[in-house]
Amino acid sequence: MNAMQQHMIDVYRAAQRGEAAPPLPGAGDVRALRAVRDRRRFEAVVTPSAGRLPARGLLRAVRALLGRRTPASAPVGHRPYPRQEVREHAPHVGGSPAQCG
């Protein structure tokens, strides 16, 4: 017997006894799934995990990585991107403001 047939039997029995009809099968499923999801989100925030960095630690780690231009072990004159050579005496392409006239 499937859930709908059982529900129809329960409705008939409730009508015979003068009671309120039971809710349809699956009526509270969405609410139960949302409650489980919300509980998991709450637990993820409240309980620290051994494999995760806290939010502040993660933010500091990202800032440290983005703020660092060269690796800490690199020599002083080392360029991290050798293909992007900078010409020290390259001519100025745009000219001076007096020449743009």
Protein architecture, described:
This protein has 101 residues and is an all-alpha fold. Helix content is 46%, strand content 0%. It has helices at 3-17, 29-46, 55-67. The model has no long low-confidence stretch (mean pLDDT 76).
- Largest sheet: number of strands, sense, barrel closure: none
Mean pLDDT: 76
How many DSSP helices?
Answer: 3
Give the oligomeric state of the chains in this entry, treating copies of one chain as homo and distinct chains as hetero: single chain
What coarse outline follows from CA principal-axis ratios?
elongated
Ends distance: 90 Å
Strand fraction equals under 5%
The poorly predicted ranges are none
- Kindly name the structural category: mainly alpha
Number of strands: 0
**Could you spell the SSE succession in H and E letters?**
HHH
Structural features:
101 residues, mainly alpha, elongated
List the helices and strands and how they pair.
Elements: H1 3-17, H2 29-46, H3 55-67
In short:
This protein is an all-alpha fold and 101 residues long.
